[in-house]
Design goal:
single chain, 241 residues, alpha/beta, eight-stranded mixed β-sheet, 42% helix, Rossmann fold
Length: 241
Amino acid sequence: MKAVERWHSSRLEQWVGVARWGGYGRPVLVFPTAGGDAEEIERFGLVDALGGLLGAGRIKVYSVDSISGRSWLRNEDPRHAIWLQNQFDRFLVDEVMPLIRAECNDGGIEIVTAGASIGAFWALELITRHPDLVRTAVCMSGTFDLSPWRHGHWSDDFYFSSPLDFVPGLDGWQLDQLRRRFIVLSCGGGRWENPDESWRMADVLGAKGVPNRVDQWGGEWDHDWPTWRAMLPLYLDDLAG
């Protein structure tokens, strides 16, 4: 079962697409790569790779357009891209999360986030910033340091949407909740991969007592879809319940 819809988000000031696959099961919000749309994960075979879990009713998969990632890729005014970065978070929390929870009759903390490359950034951003809404994140081949793209510009919008920057300062209820969550940081050892990004993020999380695990696969696993098609079903089989 597949459904796709689009609506105009006042938070993002543009149209955005949301897709979902499956009838019931644990809701999993999978983010596309930087330039991708809501259906990218289907075109590149990731939905098919999750077919066993979908068919068994263990998961229901959602995805959204990469609004923030596209802005960075288009080399827009970094001040606008930084603003959009934070607005994308508000879009996810105020528009997408209520849709997922309503469809899945979710009265508790049930959502899993996942993604590769920039998608891994957003899977991590959502669980670290909103641990009351997300229980587990699967971050594959993550790109977590966005500072080279902001060209020296800085604002609270960037700080509060960049886990590398805001996690070291977390305290109170947000940190307490996050310490009860779990984050997987997986990466390959092959072409175009940068395992240092995952290890750096793990160090930041570990310093705050946030449960996480780095899984570095072998040199035959590149920064590419075959790697992520192998990774995600494996982790979701273990973590999605």
